[in-house]
């Protein structure tokens, strides 16, 4: 479709998709459409989710559209997140320990406290402790989208703090998925996936160019990771971390920056909204809403995101500034940190993913989550 547009129109659309405001609005719009579709025409929505496409041999890729969105499209999102994380390590807030300490500790506390609160709420006989990781994730697109909307009223360093916080949060979420929510590992497929990743790294470091080489290699590596039992999104973030994000010689942009510039519109404009469309459609009614506040699993998520994230992020940052040499940016006030701590409680993309992984045999519970 974009290929049929004139160059100025295509440039305008792709530039718009690189802004957090537009990406966040598309994500929100897709979630609203999913909710309306799932409640007004539930059978049609479910039939679309269950429609299978793809080859069954040799890597069992005859998957439903919902699975393609969860395992395939989110790999693109995590690929961009991996590049962001690498860039933060080499050129951003994470490159110096003193600057990184505050947001890193805030992110860790913002993961630990929601998990603890969820576990406490679900410690009784009717609890579901396997969902402990659902409220630990911050949605980068939503949080930065909200921050961009009100950006004129907040100091600019707040965005850098939130981005660093969310990137570290994503790294922790990826490790949680890989360690706790992977199952039945097939070591032959995992070994071949590592070979694919090594080849990806080798070609990139040798300065080899050409999407026609890297895209098929990335797809095969993703398919092998999917077959191995490790969640396929791990392949996306691994390839993102392998890209060189520092400039050499007379380069105006590093390869990582260039590739992120190209892929981000695909992630923000297609991959994440489609994932939301296929994942956020749950039946909403009075009785079902009451279950959110009366059953342990959904209540633990509410408390974890609303209370755990806010208190964990703010408390971690404050304690770090109070008892170490780390300091808050002079342009920021602690009232600003309260605001960013609440924004960190927006859990959507990764939280939806972990909800499905945590309760694979109970779709009704996953829907409430």
Please, could you describe this protein's structure?
The protein is an all-alpha fold. The chain has one domain: Na+/H+ antiporter like domain (Na+/H+ antiporter like fold). Helices cover 71% and strands 1% of the residues. The protein has a two-stranded antiparallel ribbon with strand order 1-2. Helix 4 packs parallel to helix 10, helix 8 (187-205) runs antiparallel to helix 9 (211-228) and helix 8 (187-205) packs parallel to helix 10. The radius of gyration is 21 Å and the shape is globular. It starts with 6 loop residues before the first helix and ends with a helix.
Write a short abstract of this structure.
By secondary structure, the chain is an all-alpha fold. Helices cover 71% and strands 1% of the residues.
What CATH architecture would you give?
Up-down Bundle
Q: Label the overall shape.
A: globular
Give the CATH H-level superfamily: Na+/H+ antiporter like domain
CATH topology: Na+/H+ antiporter like fold
Please state roughly what percent of the residues sit in beta strands, choosing from under 5%, 5-15%, 15-25%, 25-35%, 35-45% or over 45%.
under 5%
Structural class comes to: mainly alpha
Order of helices and strands: HHHEEHHHHHHHHHHHHH
């Amino acid at each position: 479709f974009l290929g049929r547009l004139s160059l100025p129109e295509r440039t305008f659309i792709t530039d718009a998709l690189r802004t957090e405001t537009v990406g966040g609005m598309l994500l929100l719009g897709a979630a609203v459409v999913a909710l309306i579709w799932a409640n007004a025409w539930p059978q049609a929505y479910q039939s679309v989710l269950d429609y299978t496409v793809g080859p069954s041999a040799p890597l069992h890729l005859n998957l439903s559209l919902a699975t393609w969105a969860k395992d395939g499209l989110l790999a693109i999102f995590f690929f961009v997140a991996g590049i962001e994380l690498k860039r933060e390590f080499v050129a951003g807030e994470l490159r110096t320990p003193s600057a990184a300490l505050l947001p890193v500790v805030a992110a860790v506390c913002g993961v630990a406290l929601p998990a603890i609160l969820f576990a406490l709420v679900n410690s009784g006989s009717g609890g579901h402790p396997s969902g402990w990781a659902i409220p630990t994730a911050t949605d980068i697109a939503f949080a930065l989208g909200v921050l961009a909307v009100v950006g004129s009223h907040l100091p600019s360093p707040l965005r850098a703090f939130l981005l660093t916080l969310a990137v570290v949060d994503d790294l922790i979420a990826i490790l949680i998925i890989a360690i706790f929510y992977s199952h039945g590992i097939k070591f032959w497929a995992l070994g071949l996936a590592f070979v694919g990743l090594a080849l990806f790294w080798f070609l990139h470091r040798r300065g080899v160019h050409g999407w026609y080489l890297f895209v098929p290699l990335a797809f095969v590596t993703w398919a092998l990771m999917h077959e191995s039992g490790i969640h396929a999104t791990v392949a996306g973030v691994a390839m993102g971390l392998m890209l060189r994000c520092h400039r050499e010689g007379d380069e105006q942009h590093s390869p990582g920056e260039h590739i992120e510039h190209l892929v981000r519109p695909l992630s923000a404009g297609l991959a994440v909204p489609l994932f939301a469309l296929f994942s956020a459609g749950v039946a909403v009614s009075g009785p079902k809403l009451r279950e959110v506040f009366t059953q342990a699993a959904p209540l633990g998520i509410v408390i974890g995101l609303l209370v755990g994230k806010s208190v964990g992020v703010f408390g971690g940052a404050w304690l770090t500034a109070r008892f170490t040499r780390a300091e808050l940016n002079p342009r920021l006030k602690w009232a600003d940190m309260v605001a960013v701590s609440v924004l960190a409680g927006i859990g959507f993309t990764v939280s939806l993913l972990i909800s499905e992984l945590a309760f694979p045999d109970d779709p009704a519970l996953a829907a409430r989550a």
